[in-house]
């Protein structure tokens, strides 16, 4: 690392402070105004936008050379020339936030050359702060966490939507005998794998980078692995910031990967 470059641990400290400020803003909205995004991209609230503005201002001022990719900011090709980039989901699990559930998160990450090097996921209503920086392990509220060692689908739990358990997505139509559960926030799903509370996660549909960037590092630093649904490594700050689904887990990851059917062409 060049002498003038910020260490990942310093970037992590910045992300944590910003996430805590984001929580103060988001939890201050009792009944936020809600809009539907274009092209069926789901709802957005004035809280999402307020958090996004604050994060863009604060993080941009602290690291003016970093690029910016956020769910709630219009994308710009300028980010592609940045060595480091913030990848942000101001409120991951907006539907849960609207419903008054506690299952939403602030998901903040820094990526360098396609790889996440610092990450923070904060669930304010649950008092959960997941953190990691490259080579530093993963923590939950300052305590080291580790991904599951369970490799038997019959004893395993998988986080994902009902679609993930449809027979057409599995080789020979044979759905593994996992117990399925669901959480609204993709970032939290990855963090739940990192702390070993669940064994795997699967999403079939194309997945935005801001949904999984932070959680991917937290899981990998906890000894787990996240890939796309074909088993390819996830890369970040791509021109089109989506992956072909996500399969993640601890020891169960290669077991499920071997059983997934190839997606249809086109």
From TrEMBL:
<keyword id="KW-0460">Magnesium</keyword>
<feature type="binding site">
    <location>
        <position position="71"/>
    </location>
    <ligand>
        <name>Mg(2+)</name>
    </ligand>
</feature>
<feature type="binding site">
    <location>
        <position position="91"/>
    </location>
    <ligand>
        <name>Mg(2+)</name>
    </ligand>
</feature>
<dbReference type="GO" id="GO:0007165">
    <property type="term" value="P:signal transduction"/>
</dbReference>
<feature type="binding site">
    <location>
        <position position="89"/>
    </location>
    <ligand>
        <name>Mg(2+)</name>
    </ligand>
</feature>
<dbReference type="Pfam" id="PF00459">
    <property type="entry name" value="Inositol_P"/>
</dbReference>
<protein>
    <submittedName>
        <fullName>Myo-inositol-1(Or 4)-monophosphatase</fullName>
    </submittedName>
</protein>
<dbReference type="InterPro" id="IPR020550">
    <property type="entry name" value="Inositol_monophosphatase_CS"/>
</dbReference>
<feature type="binding site">
    <location>
        <position position="92"/>
    </location>
    <ligand>
        <name>Mg(2+)</name>
    </ligand>
</feature>
<feature type="binding site">
    <location>
        <position position="211"/>
    </location>
    <ligand>
        <name>Mg(2+)</name>
    </ligand>
</feature>
<dbReference type="InterPro" id="IPR000760">
    <property type="entry name" value="Inositol_monophosphatase-like"/>
</dbReference>
<dbReference type="GO" id="GO:0008934">
    <property type="term" value="F:inositol monophosphate 1-phosphatase activity"/>
</dbReference>
<comment type="similarity">
    <text>Belongs to the inositol monophosphatase superfamily.</text>
</comment>
<dbReference type="GO" id="GO:0046872">
    <property type="term" value="F:metal ion binding"/>
</dbReference>
<keyword id="KW-0479">Metal-binding</keyword>
<dbReference type="GO" id="GO:0046854">
    <property type="term" value="P:phosphatidylinositol phosphate biosynthetic process"/>
</dbReference>
<dbReference type="GO" id="GO:0006020">
    <property type="term" value="P:inositol metabolic process"/>
</dbReference>
